Queue: 2 jobs
Job 1
Amino acid sequence: MRRGLPIETTMPHIGGSDVLGEVDAVGPGVSAAVPAGPVVVNPSLWCGECEWCRRGEQPLCTCYRILGEHTQGGLAEFAIVPAANLLPVPAGYPEVQAAAAPLT
Ligand SMILES: [Zn+2]
């Protein structure tokens, strides 16, 4: 990444694909329920509209991107992510381990 892979991002860039936190606010137009308590973020970003997304094959999305690589990431106090990408951390599960799982 730092050697200049051909990605579409702006500088300065905030990396970070493994994100754990709590929902602070829900954006306008979000109708999905968001989990309460600790969540991790699926860093896969897809359009939801192309033929691959409609088939449920989001990793093949024609607009597939990764949070923190192609977009600003989660090495920040706050991050904006799609509500559909939030995954609740099970009660009692170690948060550090939960945060390490999404990208890999
Ligand atoms: Zn798509």
Note: Strands lie at 20-21, 39-41, 44-45, 65-66, 86-88.
Job 2
Amino acid sequence: MSERTLGMGVIGCGGIAQAAHLPNIVKNPRARLVAVADIDRDRANATAEQWGCTGYRDYQELLANPEVDAVCVTSWAAAHAEAVIAAAEAGKHILCEKPIAITLEDADAMVAAADRAGVKFTMGYQNRFGVSGPLIKQILDDGLIGKVMGLNVVGVGPSSHGAPWFLKRELSGGGVLMDWGIYTAFNLNWWLGPVERVFATSAIFRKEVMVRGELLTDLDVEDTVAAHLTFRSGAMGSWYSAWAVRTGHSTTSIDGSEGAILMGKGDGVNLYSTQLGDPDHLRGWRNIPAVEPSLIMLHYRKIEHLVNAVLDDTPLVMTGADGRDALELVLAIYRSAELGQPVTLPLERGIPVLEPAVAI
Ligand SMILES: NC(=O)c1ccc[n+]([C@@H]2O[C@H](COP(=O)([O-])OP(=O)(O)OC[C@H]3O[C@@H](n4cnc5c(N)ncnc54)[C@H](O)[C@@H]3O)[C@@H](O)[C@H]2O)c1
């Protein structure tokens, strides 16, 4: 008897669905692509034809299809909440792309809906299935650098922006931090536990940008953010993120009572640890190559994560609640930048939607 496969639907037929979700569902022997949906009917139909499945304009029709057991929600950020809640209420398992939503109220409602329905709800942070992220987590959990005291994270690069909506706050919820920084927010929570306090500044240095032939002016999402973080554990550090820049570079350093971790662009994970008998802090550094899989493989793994969790009824290693917590950190930083004051987490519910960052 052949093994049961998971019937999957994709809600939102844009760039990431085409590059990551559709090919990897089709590639997975335990999954079966049943249907796609997009508010752009022509795009839904063309995608359905290309991938050999049913196309709908309305995702409710996709959810009504009994062949669909699970969905990937790959619409723009502001549209995630409605689709995820409807999917949960229809009893479908869910992979939602990042960010989970653009408000904490929506994120909470999404997590609650999935919990109520008893469906699996995971997020689209593919780097969770890479090499360096889990390695850093292991180093920290094994106590190889002792008690963590401080960190410094830099993540900058020029963005070509996949679509105009990424630069429209009502659809994206924010700029560089909401789109890119949200991966770092997820990592920081995962590696070091919750952040207790943030104090941030943000700015819009670039006034206008051309995205896919559309000239966007009066941008209302930040392109540059710097934040000071204090973790509940007592560790502290800084985080700088920017995308209106000419070239990319990123580093993460974490210092503890027994050593340090340093990760730069493409040179693996560097570790100094007294726990490993490293003799001398100048000569004792070891380089762990940590060769990352291709991006398409990372996407394959995040989809496989949901497929296997449903079919084998195993726990998820990354949940909607993790996505919600990453969003909370980003929103706290936005709020601090707006107020010009430190902000304490957890955030109070019902905070107003913030004004755009200050244009410089
Ligand atoms: N994990 C990653 O590496 C990665 C990379 C890029 C984008 N993303 C995320 O994926 C999501 C989509 O990004 P994209 O680059 O594919 O955007 P996109 O603009 O290319 O595609 C979004 C699609 O969603 C459709 N859509 C919007 N609202 C809808 C609704 N209610 N029902 C059905 N379809 C709807 C749009 O018509 C569009 O076709 C975003 O959340 C983005 O942040 C993740």
Note: The chain is about 35% helix and 25% strand.
